[in-house]
Amino acid sequence: MQRILTETISVKEENGHLKKSDDFKNEKFEDNAEKASNEYKWDIKWVNVILLSYIHGAALYSCFHPVEYWSTVAIGWSYSIVTGMGTTVAAHRYFTHRSFKANKYLKFFLIMCQTMSAQEPVLHWARDHRVHHKFTDTDADPYNSRRGFFFSHVGWLMCKKHPEVIRQGKKVDMSDLENDPWLVTQKKYYIPLAFVLNFVVPVYLGILCGESFTTVWNRNLFRYIIILNFVWCVNSVAHIWGMKPYDKNISPTDSRLVGFIALGEGWHNYHHVFPWDYRTGESPNYRYNLSSAFIDFCAWMGWATELKTVPTDIIRKRVLRTGDGSHPYSKEVEEINNNNNNEHPDKLRDTEHFWGFGDKEMNPEDMKYVKVL
């Protein structure tokens, strides 16, 4: 069970040993989680099972029909990039982790992109993801990878949430988003807006290009489900296979493949260690992080400001302390050992349980991890 990061001074004595108050919080959470696990029974959401099965089937069916008008392929490709950014840049980096600030025009564009992605309103998406970061791979994690690849990839959408997910979801701080009138409005009208923007508009454009309704409808579902699966790979593939350059003690991994197909979301080990970094990874190569390229462009235009990242020295120290040895900085460990250097590589506490910049558990000492551009 990963420890809850709440440092306090108060201690209690038990069996002659001193215990921190955060240890007691851990025990309390573990007791609640164990009780919830015993009570939990799989409850399949058959409507979701049928819908997801239909979409996958229709997408597969579309693969056996040749493309008649390449203009529809161009439309589908463009829609894929925009809706993908709606998840990676809007829902994830901007709203959930507050890794940068946006002016009202960029904010409106990001909300529209996220709505086009048809992946729940921002308020729901961000709540689940913040809980995921604070309680990774526990019963409170909506896409707990310890339940297997299928569950963390798509199975979590096919059954009702574990009671602990609901309990912790009510406790996680969402005040910054719940008090945003733009997001409240989006949530209110999300279903009709998402249906029109993600299904009606692209299908209509395809028909204008000369495609039949059946062909363009199935092809649009192919585009939609491919993007969903690419996003889901962050929760599944990037929690099972890959390297752990920054922290070998957690499940998230760095995956170049996921980084490419998910527009830069594959550097997941880094992201869980430093969740407020707008880049979600160290690599300066935009080929594997198209989302960062977009944010940097917006910053250059003056639309995005206060981009949060991590000082290089902090990254280096964390790699030396908890990395798996796959990072270039890890070579310095041997040099430190050979020189009998007793300097602690990183005296700051771990921050992988924060949901991002603004988490109430962050204290002034934790701000040493944050660099604002």
Q: Within the largest sheet, what's the order of strands?
A: 1-2
Overall outline: globular
Uncertain stretches: 1-33
* Oligomeric state of this protein: single chain
Q: In DSSP terms, counting alpha (H) and pi (I) runs of 4 or more, how many helices?
A: 16
Task: Kindly state the percentage of residues in helix.
Answer: 40-55%
Residue fraction in strands: under 5%
The profile of the biggest β sheet is: 2 strands, antiparallel
Distance between the termini: 35 Å
In terms of structural class, how would the helical and strand content be classed? mainly alpha
Q: Quick gist of this model?
A:
The chain has 373 residues and is mostly helical. 54% of the residues lie in helices and 4% in strands.
Topology (SSEs and partners):
Layout: E1 11-14, E2 17-20, H1 21-39, H2 46-62, H3 70-96, E3 101-102, H4 104-116, H5 122-134, H6 149-153, H7 163-171, H8 175-178, H9 181-188, H10 190-208, H11 213-235, H12 256-261, H13 268-273, H14 290-301, E4 304-305, E5 308-309, H15 312-322, H16 331-338, E6 371-372
Antiparallel strand pairs: 1-2, 3-4, 5-6
Helix pairs in contact: 2-11, 3-4, 3-5, 3-10, 3-11, 10-11
3D structure, described in words:
Belongs to the fatty acid desaturase type 1 family. It is found in: Membrane. Keywords: Fatty acid biosynthesis, Fatty acid metabolism, Iron, Lipid biosynthesis, Lipid metabolism, Membrane, Oxidoreductase, Transmembrane, Transmembrane helix. Among the domains are: 1-39, no CATH class; 46-242, no CATH class. Helix content is 54%, strand content 4%. It contains 16 helices and 6 strands. The chain has helices spanning 21-39, 46-62, 70-96, 104-116, 122-134, 149-153, 163-171, 175-178, 181-188, 190-208, 213-235, 256-261, 268-273, 290-301, 312-322, 331-338; strands at 11-14, 17-20, 101-102, 304-305, 308-309, 371-372. The protein has a two-stranded antiparallel ribbon. It has a two-stranded antiparallel ribbon with strand order 3-4. A two-stranded antiparallel sheet has the order 5-6. The chain is globular, with a radius of gyration of 22 Å. The two termini are 35 Å apart.
